[in-house]
Specification:
Helix content: 55-70%
Largest sheet: none
Radius of gyration: 20 Å
Order of helices and strands: HH
Shape: elongated
Number of strands: 0
Structural class: mainly alpha
Length: about 80
């Protein structure tokens, strides 16, 4: 049984893109798509991955700006403790 894929459009959010990508992967892994639909799904998946990567890069840049470019590694040790 082959399924038709929806017409490509820009995702409305990162979360929607991830959900659509997850659905495409599930359909491809299940073998529910015809050959042509599989190629289209692969192409759409590539577009979604690029969209998600771009969104993550934008957020990373916003965090760097908020932290004035001084990102510090997380440390679970309390550096204010006095060592004896």
């Amino acid at each position: 049984m082959s399924k038709k894929l929806p017409i490509s459009s820009a995702p409305s959010s990162f979360e929607n893109a991830m959900a659509e990508l997850s659905e495409l992967v599930a359909q491809m892994e299940a073998g529910d798509l015809a050959l042509e639909a599989s190629v289209s799904a692969y192409q759409r998946g590539s577009e979604l991955i690029k969209y998600c990567a771009d969104q993550l890069n934008k957020v990373e840049q916003q965090v760097k700006i908020l932290d004035a470019g001084l990102l510090k590694p997380y440390s679970s040790d309390d550096s204010n403790e006095v060592q004896a």
